[in-house]
Fold:
Amino acid sequence: MSIDDHKRAAAYAAIDELPTDGIVGLGSGSTTCFFLDALRGAIAAGRRFVGVPTSDEARHRASALGIPLLGDDGPWSIAITVDGADEVDTALDLIKGSSSSHTREKIVSFASAKTVIIIDDTKLSQRLGERRPIPIEVLAFAHGTTSARLLRLGRPVQRRLSGAPVRTAAGNLIYDLEVAPITDSRLLEAELLAIPGVVETGLFVARADVVLVGSSHGVERLVRP
Structure:
């Protein structure tokens, strides 16, 4: 089985986490694309779901699949959000943001009664920061000053580029902060958010209720204590 097979298995297992019907937060990224396929099948079978996408990409894909969607304004009463992650530690804290959508993802997760994370087993680590840097959404104004302050809390800070600087849906920049394995994710998140110019971080502390991990052994269901 390939990594995509593992992602697909976790994504399809997330259907069992859904209520009979209701509003579903739709995450961004490659693994959640598989979930959208599974959700379309559930809707085709007669279940009534409406989605709240966390990115323009997720909105376009869900719309193309015929999944009914709500607008971006809110407020919503979201029963469950299903999303991916870039790294998950043993406490089920997360690093997210490879798609540059982590601010929207965090807002939708916060508005949800339950958050389910779907990953393959390559995303697991003992402590956050072992595998991935932390994406930081930063205001364009004085971003050099903000990045200099970020450097005090980590190793090299790289502005994310894709030819030109990557911009979020809100027009902000993304910096990727490399850190040593994190001993206190909640404290680090607070320190990062205290820096003027930081809009949001890719640290998702105590946000995941269930993590579904696809691997060659099947899908393991991890639950926050």
Observations:
- The chain has a mean pLDDT of 96.
- The first strand starts at residue 22 and ends at 26.
- Residues 81 and 115 are 5 Å apart (CA to CA).
- Residues 30-44 form the longest helix (15 residues).
